[in-house]
Write the structure tokens for this entry.
Amino acid sequence: MKKTNFDQMNETVYHEQMENGLNAYILPKAGFNKTYVTFTTNYGSIDNDFIPEGETDFLHVPDGIAHFLEHKMFEKEDGDVFQKFSSQGASANAFTSFTRTAYLFSATSNIKENTETLLDFVQAPYFTEQTVEKEKGIIGQEIRMYDDNPDWRVYFGLIENLYKHHPVKIDIAGTVESIADITKDYLYTCYETFYHPANMSLFIVGPVDPDEMMSLVRQNQSGKTFAEPKSVERRFPNEPAQSAEKHRAIHMSVNTPKCEVGLKMPASLKTGTEKLKEELAAGLLLEILFGKSAAFYEKSYSEGLIDDTFGFDYTGERGFSFALVGGDTDEPEKLAERIKAQLLEAKDGKNITDESFNRARKKKIGAQLRAFNSPEYIANQFTRYQFNGLNLFETVPVLETMAIEDVIGLAEKMIQEESFSSCFILPKETA
Amino acid sequence: MEETREQSFNQSGCNVHVIETEKYKTNTVIVKMRAPLEQDKITMRALLPHVLQSGTENAPSATAFRSVLDELYGAHFFADSAKRGNEHVLTFTIDVANEKFLHGESNLFDQALTIMSDVLFRPYLQESAFSEQTMKQEKRSLQQRIRSIYDDKTRYASMKLVEEMYKGDSYALPAGGLLKEVEPITAVSLYDYYKKTLAEDMIDIFVIGNVKAADAAAKIESHLPFKKRKAILKENHHSHKTEEVRVIHETQDINQGKLNIGCRTSITYADPQFTAMQVFNGVFGGFAHSKLFMNVREKESLAYYAASRFDSHKGFLMMLAGIDQKNYDKTVQIMNEQLDEVKNGHISDLEMDQTKALLKNQLQESADTARGMVEVLYNNIAAGVDRPIGKWIEEIDAVTKEEVSAVAKTVVVDTVYFLSGKEEA
């Protein structure tokens, strides 16, 4: 077990790689009541084309299967694992993203039992045709719920616009039609391929004794047998720099139109600290251009073009990255043009001043410190960083060393006119 | 579990509660202002926090104000308004980095207090009223916020149910204000209301972080000098008897039907049976092991979400599920049957144990966030109840099945609200 101190953050992380390849991390948090544990596989909705474990040819699986698999992991021959967590006083959950599937619980008692339950249920799949069919009704309702959600629709509408081939454009839950094709055999294939311990990470944060917890994990894992670890071959189509569609409008039963502008960026080729810098620079750039203290925000707000739903987001994951900017507006066309203009001018360094850079950097440092109040944030983000070859605890020290040139350089490289797209939600005409 | 208890200080116009802790990397100050819910005030109360954040004497525009926060290592300033039974609570929060994690900084906490003081006591004024420009922008934003509730169908359905079910009771008012009341508000009328609020609201201030209690209280007294005021008498709103269940069906062009069923109970947060009611809600629909989730979702695959929520400040219980329109009758029937199950005492030991374990877990977890601790404290303060977390947990442990079924019998279905798509082809 290796111990690393992050002095500035006043945190210590313990790490051990188990013999089967599983990476286990423990961050003791004194004074907290809650322990939060995540068990995550480096597998998400984009991983739909791969060579299954034990085979030689690529297989393309139905859309939404990673998320479907996440739902079905909870059901066992002797009932639902939620029941067991409840009896042990733990609140359990799971989520699927583009690149990860995470299973988790939080609890203030029975931490050892709950940790074992988490490891055991994720490492013992049980799928039958009957339970798979039953889940289609439930997930069908989940999909329909999102279909009525304008924020989700504009988000995915825009990603679909940006990407021509890459599977990030596929809704994480799939569609009612695509999940109809899911079978128990598909689920086992995905499970066997992506749930090998070597492809997974366990993160424990809370008032725990690291020696005791690590030995529990070690013992639990050494009692199970797995195939030899090997890396999974995944295949992704080549994605052009140009966005697939320049624009789309979706009509829904809403009062307020929405406008989102997206910018597809080239997938990062950097690793380690350099990659972290790039990700932080992208966040700083958006803050400088569109944050609440930016001139853009003041002008647009005072004109009534935006309201406080206006925001921005940068996503940089394994094999893709993009930025989104927008919010509710009565004039989506005008807002879209203004956002694009602001980004294109920034390519030439406009509006990126020392003053705005320093302010954005200070804000980001404070936000990072605040985020470290949250065990959920630490566990989820640490795992995301680790899968991407980065270290979450470097963010504050790296931010302190960053310079305005990092942001100017990124803007110049990443902002390309051909990579833009926009998506609007517009009120349905009442017949 | 070690319980962090607050130290309280009675100051002339407010009560100050300090929780000393080294758990967090930030320090937090929360100001809560409480007044009765009133039709002619609620919209001004919803607007006021936004106007106050749009400029102070020291930072006379929203941009200037946001820049001050950014410079202070992204101090987080947040204000909102919420219903608490028949009261309306304005909450102002500032959360600032603890300088011990930063290189070469000091006094961030004092600077944060100055910002809170600027917002509450020294707003940016023009001719002894709020600025016309700010009023115009913030009224427009508020109108947009109120209109957009319609766009979030789950939220819209809950709001409509409450509006219909509590007609004539101030609890029916939406915390975010009424659309038609926004336009008539002027810079002068809001400024007058602001002065009244500052002088009359019941005020509690919370400080959470790496501070010394007496020291923090003294700083609050000098930065936030609220004047002496009279206690507000609480109105008692008794829930009326329901003759028969009302059914309201609305259609919109949407995919999924949102079923919300409203029930009344006489039991509220201040009652001795409150914890039994809490256990009832857990057994019935609060968790993934609850009867509603197990029967509506897991057994019948009718829904993705199927749950119940209890607003203990009012005695309002809501069952909700997102379903296909064609399954309306079946779902309503299952929900009613499950309510009868609890009323008839059909509760297993397992259901009791699971519910108690999760309720206790929730309470203990709430003590891990500054906001969670403040909510627990504030509920006790505002309801005049002494139920600190430790005692609360003992009460949960002591609840029996008989008590759960007894409180279930007080639950009466009042209004069924169903928002669905147009007729399915």
